[in-house]
Design a protein that fits this description.
- With about 300 residues, the protein is an alpha/beta fold.
- Helices cover about 45% and strands about 20% of the residues.
- The chain has 13 helices and seven strands.
- It has a seven-stranded mixed sheet with strand order 3-2-1-4-5-7-6.
- Strand 2, helix 7 and strand 3 form a beta-alpha-beta unit.
- Helix 1 packs across helix 9.
Length: about 300
């Protein structure tokens, strides 16, 4: 996508939405809760009937979409198996896809998952009604200091981008970890290698990209991996998967472009509240995502923190 294309689609999205005030609004828990409540139908209809709400990671074109969606959970599962972990907590579980997949794989491991969205939790509990080792609880990971329990592993898939203070959440999570425990994160971050400043067209497109996810901005990767002030933790692993989420983004972009050919009807139906604004947000995220991944402004990463055993 060229900068001229960005300008064209900036105008398209703005025309459908009707007011640029939407792009500047703050993203409180209420706004985020509303976004995911109204997005749930589209995730289940077009992305995953089983409730996955994250990006698929592709290493092979032959792999199915469903198998690509299991990559993050399978990576967590490998860590559970390798270390013999028995108590696992998921932060921001969405509709429960990852925890349910893992609970079925590891029937002797106890899984707890929290989310702020009642619609997500209702779906997750329904899907897990016959699973005895998975529990879903209303909870805000911004306030883990009020959370009880001890866990061998805590993981978050594309949720800590919404944290009010990323390092505070990691600090609170570290206090819930047992010795030799780990925190595993899959998420998008501003890359440490980005150099050139964005021009005005790119700034508007980036704003729309973030708005597409109900984000004010992406966190900085460098800030996320600086653990000097989180004494019990060491950065154990960091891997970038930007190239492996790009195929899905490009497919998403293609669908968004086709949908925006009907911008008159999108605008009309959005005004009449027949189409929720969350759907237009998702189109915006899909349109702009490949540009900022290709530009190396935003990347997709796996980060693992380790709570080392204290020498006695």
């Amino acid at each position: 996508m060229t900068k001229d294309d960005l300008a064209f689609y900036n105008a398209k999205i703005a025309g459908v939405v009707g007011s640029e005030e939407h792009f500047d609004k703050s993203f409180s828990n209420d706004v985020l809760d509303d976004y995911y409540t109204k997005s749930a139908f589209f995730y289940k209809k077009f992305h995953s009937p089983d409730g996955a709400m994250h990006l698929p990671i592709a290493f092979s074109e032959e792999a199915t979409h469903k198998s690509k969606l299991k990559y993050q959970a399978n990576a967590v599962g490998q860590m559970i198996k390798k270390n013999g972990y028995t108590h696992v907590l998921e932060l921001g579980c969405g509709m429960g896809f990852n925890t349910i997949h893992l609970a079925n794989q590891f029937p002797t491991v106890e899984f707890m998952a929290i989310d702020i969205n009642d619609t997500n939790l209702t779906f997750a509990r329904s899907k897990a009604k016959n699973i005895n080792n998975a529990s879903f609880q209303a909870g805000d990971f911004n306030f883990l200091e009020h959370f009880e329990g001890r866990y061998d592993l805590i993981f978050a898939v594309e949720t800590l981008c919404y944290s009010r203070d990323f390092n505070d959440v990691i600090q609170s999570a570290a206090e819930l970890l047992t010795e030799n425990g780990r925190i595993v994160i899959f998420d998008g971050f501003k890359t440490p290698t980005r150099t050139a400043a964005l021009n005005k067209i790119e700034e508007k497109a980036y704003q729309m990209f973030c708005w597409g996810f109900s984000l004010p901005d992406f966190k900085n990767y460098k800030d996320a991996t600086m653990v000097e002030n989180i004494a019990p933790l060491k950065l154990e692993e960091s891997a970038e998967y930007s190239n492996h989420v790009m195929p899905n983004f490009l497919s998403f972009q293609k669908s968004a472009k086709l949908t925006l050919r009907w911008n008159f009807f999108l605008k009309l139906f959005t005004r009449m509240n027949w189409i929720p604004l969350a759907f237009i947000q998702q189109l915006s995220a899909g349109l702009m995502g490949p540009y900022f991944l290709e530009k190396r402004y935003v990347g997709y990463y796996k980060i693992v923190f380790h709570k080392e055993q204290i020498e006695k």
